[in-house]
Amino acid sequence: MREAARLEGIKVMVIDDSNTIRRSAEIFLAQAGCSVLLAEDGFDALSKIADNHPDVIFVDIMMPRLDGYQACALIKRNPRYSATPVIMLSSKDGLFDRARGRMVGSDEYLTKPFTKDSLIRAVAAHTARVAA
Fold this sequence. Notes:
By secondary structure, the protein is α/β, with parallel strands linked by helices. The protein has a single domain (2-121), classed as Rossmann fold, CATH 3.40.50. It is 48% helix and 18% strand.
């Protein structure tokens, strides 16, 4: 429970075109005390990021219109958000995908299906780093 207390009030954005993935992540993160923002694609996310300044962003790679790589690159290029941790979510676990994520500035890469523990560990690790 100590970890959940640390996540109280942390703003986490989940960008995924799958309603199921968004809702699962929202439930897991809310149970840990996070304030959760949802977006269904990169375009939807960009305005919400500007309005809400999330502490951590999870972004799916495969999305219509603006994919996760493009969304991550845009977030990281903006000086106001370049320090915000961006964690890629993907069902692909290849070396190429991980390397491409790093090239656009992602801070971590989680494969789907993710677990509640893996999401919470990622938020805790990145918010501790930001606070340090």
